Each structure stands twice: as C-alpha cells, then as structure tokens.
Amino acid sequence: MMRARTTVVRPSDQSLHSAICLALAFAAIKLVLHIAANLWEAHIGYGYFRDELYYLICGRHLAWGYVDHGPIVALQARAAELLFGKSLAGIRMLSATAGAARVFLTGILAWSLGGRRPAQSLAMLGVLVSPQYLGIDSYLSMNSFESLFWMTCLLAMILILRGASTDRDNAKLWLLFGLSAGIGLLNKPSMTFFLVALLIALILTPQRRLLANRWTAAGIALLILIPLPNLLWQIHHHWPTLEFLHNGQIENKNIKLAPLPFLVTQILNMQPATVLIWGAGLLWLLRNPLAKPWRWLGLTYLFFLAIMMALHAKDYYVAPIYPILFAAGGIAWERRYAQRPAVIANRSFAFPILQTIILTACVLILPMSLPLMRPQAWLAYTKATHLYSASSNTENMSSGPLPQFYADRFGWQEDVDQVTRIYRSLSPQDQQKVGIYCSNYGEASAINFLGHNLPQAISGHNSYFLWGSHAETGELMIVINGASPEEMRGYYDSVQIVGRMDHPFSMPFEHRNIYLVRGRRKKIFEDWLHFKLYI
Is 361 exposed, middle or buried, given 0-12, 13-18 or 19+ CB atoms closer than 10 A? Predict the structure, then answer.
C-alpha cells in the first residue's frame, strides 16, 4: 500500500521581508545623499581626488596587481569610466552604491542576530551618519567596498550557525564566505588581518566546530584560489607591494598613534554619539549571556583592533568591521528597553532622544566628511566650531589650510591647463618629440585623464614605474617636480622655468615649478631604474 505523499510549504519569513524593505529604504537614503553631495561638490569648485585620478588611469592598465593597491579598484574605475565618462558624480557612483550596500548589510546583520525593526533602524542610522563612511564613500576608492566583503563573510557564518541551531543545513554558505573573502583580498590586502582575527576568535570559542566541515574546506579553497593570480603577479614583479609598505615605514610616511589616541580616533571617526550604539554592541557581544553564541564576533573586533595597533596602521583601517558592532548595538538597545511602547510596537524610531542626538551631531559635523562648503566658508566654519585640527591627518606631510582629504581635490585642472599652454607654445617639430615627466601619480594621472591631445605623461611613482618610460630619451621634456633649477641643471643641458603649480588650497608639496628642459645627459629609458619611487 502506497503512502500518500505530502508537501509541507513553509510560509515566507515575514521578519526577513520586513528587514529587507527597511534596509533598502535606509540604503536609498545613503545613495541619494552621495549623489546629491557629489553634484553639489562639483558645482562649488571641488574636483577629482588625487587617488581617484590614479585609479582611473590604473583602470586603463588592467592587471592582476598594482604596486600600492589591489586590482578591484582599477576594475571599478574602468567600469565607472565606461558607464559615466568623466562625470564626477558618475565616476563615484559605484563607491556610493557600495556605501549603500554597507547600510543594507548592517540592517540584515541586525536581523540575523535576532533584532527587530527598532534594532535594525538604530544600527543602520549609526552607519549612515558615520563621518568615516560618509568620507570614504564620497569618492572612487577600494575603501568603500571593504565592509561589503567583510560583512558578507560574517553574515554567511551567522546564517550557518543559525541553521545549525534549527537543524537546517546552511553549510553551503561557506562558498559565499570564500567568494566574498577571495574578492575582498583582491580589493585590499588588509582583509588578510581581518581573516586572521576571525580565525583566532573562532578557535577560542565553541563555534570552532564550524571549521570541521567539508564545505568549510571548499570555502577556504575559494578564498585561496580567487586571489592567487594577484599573488603570482606579486612574485613575478618581485613583491612591489611589500617594498611599497616597507618604504612607507622607513620614511615615516604615516602618523603612528599610541593605543589610547588610536582608540580616541575610532570614536571620532564613527561620530562620538554613535559609540553609545557600537560600544553597547561590543559589550553585549562580550558579556551578555544571551549573546554567548555570537561572542566570537566581539572577539574578532578586539583581535583585529589589537593587530592594527601593533602594526601602527592608519586609524581608518579598522572602519570596515564596525557594521557588525552597530548591528549588535541595535539589539542591545532593543533588549534593554524591551518594555517601551515604541519597542513593543516595533517602530523604527523607537529611541527618539538618542536618534535625535545622533542626527543633530551628523548635521553639525557633516562638512568634515563631505565638502559641502566652499573653502573659505569651510575655514570660517571650522574656526568657529573648533572642529578641525591638522593633527587629525593620517600622514605626516603638511596639508596647508585644508585637510589633505579636501586639499587633494584642488589644482589638477589648472595644472593641466598650464601644461597644455606650454605644449601648444612649442613648434610643431618640438611637439612631435616632447615628453612629459611628473614626480608623482597625481600629476601624471591628471594630465593623462584630464588632458586633451597631450603626450602620455610618465612617472616613476608606484605603478607608473611598472608602466615604463615609453622610450623617452629626455631630448625635450616638460617636467613637473620639486627640484630646484640648480638640481635640474645637473641632469639637463638647458633648463627653463615655464610655469608654476601654486593653487592656494592644494597640498603644499604640489606648489612647484614646471620646467621645459632639453638635452638629458643620460637617456631616460636607459636610466629608468633611477626614477623608481615606491611610497
């Protein structure tokens, strides 16, 4: 006798559907904010950021590796240029979208840990207003994508654990973990330290049982295979990234903070008021008995923070890990005030006093994250509010009246216009043979991206060195560097100052001469190794 076969249809998870809708709403706010800010920024005179000009040129030299960054940002830059041309807001669209995805993931992480709408909203609000995230999502960079890869790894592991506790086999999500981690390593090598911290945290907690699974091995295999081409590229080019990092250390390029100031910058970077969320989240993960299955998340943060301190890393290197603390913080508040009518009613704006304080602080310090004011107005505002100190820069070089993050957006078009004027003043014969040499990737990239009908600028700085000298001899060159005329005469028979880079708001080291030189005593392509500058 045959048994009747039945099919059990599980109802859709309404809490997940609600969480997705709420997260999409917050993500949309984030995206619209950046699009509007980028359009306004271009209107009031801010231009391309130095590094994004460089990434755009890297996108025209697609490879499995670069001296000072991974290949993902070059791919992002190439896609942005193909999609949006030279539109400033368009070039930055993918980074803004990645920032919106960070907000979205924060809401889903809060849901995955058991948070309802009050927890999800509070967590996403904290991430939405964070000055650090507002800043890195406002221009084309790899930094905006870091949280996307890190938090996807954590979400996959949380869902694997949730499945194990409900007899659902979610182990295949290790493949998602491996995919996200592998691409994250191609995006930025600092993900290595996050993965190390995560591994230590798992080993030290009962959740180490997650590692004893065949799908774990498959995920780890993906993690290794995906960035393998970059590793082979590094070997083939004699480990340029390690040389770049070593030179930065010995040249004392970056400001090195002691542990206490490093912690203070974490609070400032995330906005002081939001420490009430992510700080509460860290304590909840580490101390609350109900959070015991998730203790490894809090330990991952502590181990990663300790590694960054020990390496004297830049303070913003810790930023990608905070969304999980915000997610936990939202739950900590929701559980602590579970009897409040707004929490019982499952409202998004369940903590009006805290959320109002956070939003008010965001409005006051927003000009520190996004260049929404013209330089003179910004200087007056920060003088009146005491919000800016030059000591907050991450590098030791002077930035002038504006912080480096803003100063690096000025002077590029003016400099390209000067080089164009000099080039057009040459005879047709000289135009055929003249070359352009720049001392750093910012100058060279500005000329190559913003210039029209100019020779391809070369440089020995970072990846430009690997792209070569273009067989330049030095017979006739337009040179932009910080050398004195006397120093230049040691290399060239004829040296003439024909221009000057002197934009009042650009970085001080960019205030330098533009030379027209003739007759280099040793051909550039023969002496190319002398031009190498990895820093």
Answer: middle
